[in-house]
Amino acid sequence: MRLRFAPSPTGQLHVGNARTALFNWLLARNRGGTLILRIEDTDRERSTHESERGILEDLRWLGLDWDEGPDAGGDVGPYRQSERLDLYRAHADRLLASGHAYRCFCSTEQLEADRQAARAAGQPPRYAGRCRSLGPEAVRLRLDAGEPAVVRFRVPAHRDVTFADVVRGSITISTDVIGDPVLLRSDGHPAYNFAVVIDDGLMGVTTVVRGEDHIPNTPRQVLLYEAFGWTPPVFAHLSLVLGPDHAPLSKRHGATSVVEFRNRGYLPEALVNYLALVGWSPGGGDELLPLEELARRFSLEGVSHSAGVFDVEKLAWVNRHYLKIADRERLCALSLPYLREAGLANTLSEAARAWLTAILPMATAAVDRLDQVPARLALVFTYDAIEALAREGVRAELLADGARNVARALAEDLASAPPLTDREQFRAAAQRVRETTGQKGKALFHPIRIVLTGHNEGPELDLLVPAIDTGAALGADSGLAPITGCRARAQAFVEALG
Ligand code: GLU
User: Fold this and answer.
1) Ligand 1 and 220: CB distance under 6 A
2) CA distance 179 to 124
3) Domain boundary, last residue among 238, 263, 286
C-alpha cells in the first residue's frame, strides 16, 4: 500500500490537514505501507519555502514521519511539484497526441464573457468548447504566431464517472456537468487536477486519503487516469473538521493551525491523540492511546462519514491527561517560555531550575494548557498585603476575630520560626498557631491561606507554602522574579491589618 500526504505550502498547517496527514500515517503504519510526503507548490504566488518548512516541522512535532519526501528522498521523486514541470509537460504532450487534450487559445476576457452569458442563460459556467475542434493547421499557425495557449482535457460527453470511496461508498457523477478542465497553463505550470494524477500515477499511490473538499475533483482525475490507461487508486474522502457552529473550522473559531495550538501549550501527543478521535474511534472504550496503539487499531472502514466537530473541551481533557503523565523536566523546559513572557523567569540557575521542576506539577495538574502555568504560579511570585485586604472576599473573612487572631499568631510564630521549606515545617507552624488560637480545620487553614497568599483559593497549602519559602531562599541571582517568603508575608499582612 502506497499513501501520500500532499500539502500545499501556502500557509500554516491547519489542524484539519494535520488530521488528514495523521489518518494517512495511521493507515500506512497499520498496513506496513509506505507514506509519501509531496509538496504541492505549483501555486507560485502563494507557495513559500517558509510554509513548507513550517509544515514539515509541525508534522514532526506531532510525531508523524514519512518514508519518501523532499527531505527523505525516494525512487519516484522529485517530491516537490515545482521540480516536476518536465514530467507534466511530457504527459500533456501524450494526451495532445492521443487526442484526449487540445490547445485552447481563449483569452481571459472571452472566458469571462462566456461565463456571464452562461449565467444569464441559467446554465452552469463551464467552458463553452470554442477551441475543442480547431484543426491541427490552425493550431500550428496560432502557436507559431506566439499566441499563448493552455492545454485542456477533452471530457467525454454523456458519461457517468463512478469511483469507489471507502468512507462514503460509491460516488457517480455525470460528465455533462464537467467542463473541459485546463491541464497546463500557458506558462507551462500544471493545474492541480493534472499534477495530482501524474504524481499519484507515477508515484504508484494505491490509496488516496484526503479531505472531502476534493470530491468534486475526483471524477476529473478518474477520467485522466482512464486517458492514460492507468488504474485509479482507491479513494477515501474524510469529512471536514467543523467548528462548534458546524461551519468549517476557521479563524473565527479561534486557533486553527497546529502551530497556534503548540503556542498555547498543548502537548503534541495530546493534539495528535485528540485529532485521531475526530471522526474515528479506536474502540474498546479507550480514547487516550499512544500513536503506535492508535495505528494498530486503525482502519479506514471505521472512519465516520459524518462531519467531525472540533471540541476544544475534549482536547483540553486529553491535554490534561498528558500533562499529568509528562516528565517533569520536559514540562519545566516547555513552561519556561511562558514564564519568561510573564516576567517570572529569565535564564535560570541550576538550583532555580530544580526548584521549578519540583514545584511545577502543582500548576500543571490544574491547567488545561501550559500557557496557563504563569497565572497558576502567580501566588508563588506576587504578594501584596494591601491589595489582598482590598479584595472583598478576603476582607469579609478577616472580620471574624478568630481569623484575625490566626493572622497575628502566625506572624508572631514565623518571626522566630525557621523558613517553611517543607511540608513538615509548615504543618508544625500550623499546629503551633492552632495551639495558641484554639482555631482548627477550615477556621485555621483558611486564614493561613489568606495571610500567606493573599487569596481565598489556590493550590494545596502543603505544596504551595514550601514552594514559596524554598523559592524565596534561592536569592537574587537565581534568574527568577523575586519571591517574598512566608515570614515577610505574614508580617506585612498583620501590619496592613492594623
Ligand atoms: N494539495 C492539496 C491540498 O492541500 C491536496 C491534494 C490531494 O490530497 O489530492 O488540499
Assistant:
1) no
2) 9
3) 238
State how far the Cα of 192 lies from the Cα of 183, in Å rounded to an integer.
Answer: 8
List the strands of the sheet with 2-5, edge to edge: 34-37, 2-5, 207-211, 234-238, 160-165, 169-174
Task: Mark which of 238, 262, 296 sits at the end of a domain.
Answer: 238
CATH of the domain at 491: 1.10.10
* pLDDT score of 393: 86
Judge whether 4 lies within some domain: no
Q: Measure CA of the first residue to CA of the last residue in the chain; give whole Å.
A: 78
For residue range 408-420, what is the model confidence (pLDDT) as tens digits?
999 999 999 999 9
* pLDDT tens digits for range 229-262: 999 999 999 999 999 999 999 989 889 999 999 9
Q: Is 268 part of a structural domain of the chain?
A: no
Give 78-114 pLDDT, tens digit per residue. Answer: 999 999 999 999 999 999 999 999 999 999 999 999 9
Nearest atom of ligand 1 to the alpha carbon of 7? 4
Q: What total number of domains does the chain contain?
A: 2
- The verdict on residue 141 lying in a domain is yes
CB 62 within 8 A of CB 29: no
Range of the domain at 479: 381-497
Q: Which of 251, 324, 440, 442 is catalytic?
A: 251
Clarify whether 251 is annotated catalytic.
Answer: yes
Mean model confidence pLDDT for the chain: 96
Instruction: List Cβ neighbours of 195 (8 Å cut-off, separation of 6 or more).
Output: 40, 42, 81, 84, 88
Q: Is the CB of 8 under 6 A from ligand 1?
A: yes
In a domain, 301, yes or no: no
Which residues are CB-contacts of 207 (< 8 A; sequence separation ≥ 6)?
A: 1, 2, 3, 27, 33, 166, 233, 234, 235, 236, 300
Cα 18 from Cα 25, distance rounded (Å): 10
Length of the chain: 498
pLDDT tens string 307-361: 889 999 999 999 999 999 999 999 999 999 999 999 999 999 999 999 999 999 9
pTM, two decimals, is 0.93
Does 9 contact ligand 1 (Cβ within 6 A)? no
